[in-house]
Amino acid sequence: MRIFNSVFIVLFMLMLTLPLVFVDLTSDRISVKENRMLAERPKLADIKNHPGRFIRGFDAWFKDSTGFREPFVDLYRAMNNNRWLNSQYMYTDGSYTYLFGEYGHQYFAHVDGFLIQKYQGKQFLSDDQLQGMASKLEEVKTYLDNKGIPLVVMFCTDKESIYPEFYPKSIKRGPEPIQLDVITSYLQENTSVDIFNIKQTLLAEKKNYLLYYIIDTMSFTDDFAHYNQIGAFFAYRELMKHINIHFPQIIPYELNDIEINYDEKERPHVSLKADTTYELIDDSPLIYENADSEQLVILFLHDSYSAEGYIGKFFAQQFGKAIFIHYTNIANFDE
């Protein structure tokens, strides 16, 4: 592996250096492949007289004039279309980046890989942002308290917090506590809101079950960034502990109330043994009604971790109405 890394570094440095050494200084150049005239080198006099024009012109000229430009473009296209090469190291889907770790595990690194910083233990939110979050959550709690509505805030955790052992070894892990725990503790200490995260709950179950997807074998999506349906069940149970403080009459489902089946790609699917009694009555937002349950209403302001396919079905079964509104619609909070 060390030899491979050394060869890769040498090749990478050559790819950076050679285009600079062999810049094409000729004029009146045409790209046959792109069917256009390539940019001309800007006049040096524009540095003083028209600096903005010079910068734009130099940028266009440099991109069109780097050495071995067309072979590198061809190489990029070939590599980008090579599924095997992508699946062995890194794959980008639009602006999203995915990392490939040990034993086939994939990790979601988001735009330009910025979520790697979270794994490295770098501060995710500034002190001002944390203070602002605490203040806003306290406002929301006061608003809901006046309407007799209890507020519970659950933070989910990404795969690298539960399975750091499979993360790419070339990336150094940050110290404990991780930022998720830092943020959770700060808000617990500086607000009166019932706030918790599910990291310890999932860590306690990881030896018994695989709680996150390894990889989506059909297409590269961010499914492997989320907990799978088994992980979602344990998240549901942890959330119910906090809901039961306000509504002790709701009996949470246990492991013997569910069935776990695996599809042909060995992905788990969790279903309730009891017959489903809820039905979808609206899909924008998602609203489920349940004629056989207590007439309690639960409202989720959620991200992708709380979709019906994850924890939603358990609450749709146990509440008279379950409403799921994505956090991007928070502007309609009063409604």
How would you concisely characterize the structure shown here?
This protein is α+β, with helices and mostly antiparallel strands.
Structure, explained:
- The chain is α+β, with helices and mostly antiparallel strands.
- The protein contains 12 helices and 13 strands.
- It has a 4-stranded mixed beta sheet with strand order 10-11-13-12, with helices on one face. The chain has a 3-stranded antiparallel beta sheet with strand order 3-4-5. The protein has a two-stranded antiparallel sheet with strand order 1-2.
- A hairpin with a 5-residue loop joins strand 4 and strand 5.
- Helix 11 runs parallel beside helix 12.
- The mean pLDDT is 85.
Question: Which key terms come to mind for this protein?
Answer:
335 residues; elongated; 12 helices; 3-stranded antiparallel sheet
What does the secondary structure layout of this molecule look like, with pairings?
Elements: H1 2-21, E1 30-31, E2 36-37, H2 46-49, H3 51-65, H4 69-80, H5 83-88, E3 90-93, E4 96-100, E5 106-111, H6 116-119, H7 127-145, E6 152-155, H8 159-162, H9 179-190, E7 194-197, H10 199-205, H11 229-246, E8 258-262, E9 268-272, E10 278-283, E11 286-290, E12 297-302, H12 308-318, E13 321-326
Parallel strand pairs: 6-7, 12-13
Antiparallel strand pairs: 1-2, 3-4, 4-5, 8-9, 10-11, 11-13
Helix pairs in contact: 7-9, 11-12
